[in-house]
Amino acid sequence: MVKSTTLADKANLNFPAGRIVGQLKRGRYAKRISKLAGVALASALQSCTTEVMKLASEAARQKKMQHRIKPRHICVAIREDEELNQLLSKVSIAGGGVVSHIHGAMEGKKKTKTVKGVKKVKKDKPAKEKKPAKEKKAGKSTKPKKGQKMLE
Length: 152
Prior knowledge:
Elements: H1 7-10, H2 17-26, H3 35-62, H4 71-80, H5 82-87, E1 113-115, E2 118-120
Antiparallel strand pairs: 1-2
Helix pairs in contact: 2-3, 3-4
């Protein structure tokens, strides 16, 4: 008995291209749908899924959970990738939580470390130069100091 080859097998895909063709036909997106449309859509879905799962497995590895990818890891992976975040910006993942982000203005000042009595300060920004003192304009009177008379 010979096993029949499917569209997904011919295209070397894991996603079912034949089922996607059927769904495209049932959706009435066009009068005629070719089999290659299903293969193309299946390959696009497979590549996106592979990318998300690869990023999620890296996020799980960072959290020392090498054996299990949780919804939280998928959410973190999507939000950290610029293109996937733009594509899935309106999507909420159940059990994913929110990605933590602290705005720079909200962070406290960096602490200084002392090494053998000498303070080392971490530099955030280059020091600002002091502005020269403004010169007093002629013609304006100032209050006289004690013991001085005011000139007119």
